[in-house]
Specification:
About 40% of the residues lie in helices and about 15% in strands. The chain is built from 14 helices and twelve strands. The protein has a seven-stranded mixed sheet, sandwiched between helices. Strands 9-12-11 form a three-stranded antiparallel sheet, covered by helices on one side. A two-stranded parallel sheet has the order 1-10. The structure holds pyridoxal-5'-phosphate. The site of pyridoxal-5'-phosphate has 10 residues, from helix 3. Pyridoxal-5'-phosphate binds next to helix 3.
């Protein structure tokens, strides 16, 4: 048995997405996003997000989506206020600072990898506004789901954006796993984003079945106008964009994105319930598809030997489910752990 629980990035590509690429693979089409598929994608995004003027920029990675979005939202002297564990701050090699001309990121605390409103308020109250010796907060960046599998509810997002707007900060949402957040909350894409005060969304697709295809979705005009140039200068206006657009269009059609995310979230729920029954301590209570657990080294060794792939971080392990994880695979992992707990 081999069961992939290292990362949803390790999962393969949804067949429907590969088919969509094959479907557009006939004849010629205008390059650099001038094609009909890219136009259809923008229309589809406007429908899905109930926003008649939303604009879409396909890019190649989640890091690019975040760094480009933020570069269009902050001046170089600005600070992007994010959770202290945010992917943009801890895991993207400073891409945002590079593309945003030196803007910095400032981490704010909060339980469960979610920013606490009081911590955001305290941070903004402590800033020396107008003092050029200090970076000026210009953007609030939230991540949902977080890297801990936790998801912000609509009221939680609104509360944070409300605080940010009192200081004229613009708002970015890192939605590398946005579909998992939609499924987890049951809220509409519009309610989770622009209706809750989000200006720009990094809409992930790759972790949920696409092939190096992500999108920046702009709900306000100014960042979109800049992104026309910024995407080109950073090499993200690909000549054969129709193949990325076809993927994203298929992703947002017939609920593929939500079906894929629902599978990942449901498999995670089954896994957590099973780990709980086996008395294995969980370090987080995931809304989406990532969990951290405490498993003794010897048990983790045996699980690995049985063919289960996962990351080990000191005495902790991380399990991530994906669009293609099956109930049988989860049963297999739990069965394996159960046998180890009771070796009779
Ligand atoms: C929350 C979050 N944002 C952004 C990214 C970046 O995506 P990519 O690896 O495609 O650059 C990741 C990747 O794991 C992520 O977990």
């Amino acid at each position: 048995m081999t069961v992939e629980l290292r990362s949803d990035n390790a999962a393969s590509v949804s067949p429907a997405i590969l088919e969509a690429m094959a479907t557009v693979n006939s004849g010629s089409a205008l390059a650099y996003g001038g094609d009909e598929v890219t136009a259809a994608l923008e229309n589809r995004v406007r429908e899905v997000f109930e926003h008649p003027t939303a604009r879409v920029f396909p890019v190649l990675s989640g890091t690019a989506a975040n760094a480009l979005s933020l570069s269009a939202l902050t001046p170089p002297w600005g600070s992007v206020v994010c959770h202290e564990t945010a992917h943009i701050m801890t895991s993207e090699g400073g891409a945002t600072s590079l593309l945003a001309g030196g803007a910095v990121m400032t981490g704010v605390a909060g339980e469960g990898y979610k920013m606490a409103p009081e911590a955001l308020q305290a941070h903004l109250d402590g800033v020396r506004w107008g003092d050029p010796h200090h970076s000026q907060p210009t953007v609030l960046s939230l991540t949902s789901p977080s890297d801990y599998g936790t998801v912000y509810s609509v009221p939680e997002i609104s509360e944070l954006t409300g605080i940010a707007k009192t200081r004229d900060l613009r708002v970015h949402l890192d939605g590398a796993r946005f579909a998992n957040a939609v499924v987890a909350t049951g809220a509409t894409p519009a309610d989770l984003t622009w209706r809750a005060g989000v200006d720009v969304l990094s809409l992930g697709a790759t972790k949920n079945g696409a092939l190096s295809a992500e999108a920046i979705v702009c709900f306000s005009e100014a960042p979109a106008d800049e992104l026309v140039y910024r995407t080109k200068r950073s090499g993200h206006v690909t000549s054969k964009m129709r193949y990325q657009s076809a993927q994203l269009l298929a992703y947002l059609t017939d609920d593929l994105w939500l079906r894929n995310a629902r599978n990942a979230n449901e498999r995670m729920r089954e896994l957590c319930a099973g780990l709980g029954s086996l008395g294995i301590p969980l370090l987080n209570s995931p809304d989406a598809n990532l969990v951290f657990a405490e498993i003794p080294d010897a048990v983790a060794d045996r699980l690995e030997t049985s063919g289960v792939l996962f990351y080990r971080l000191g005495g902790q392990v991380r399990f991530v489910t994906s669009w293609e994880t099956t109930p049988e695979e989860i049963d297999g992992v739990l069965g394996c752990l159960g046998r180890q707990a009771d070796p009779r």
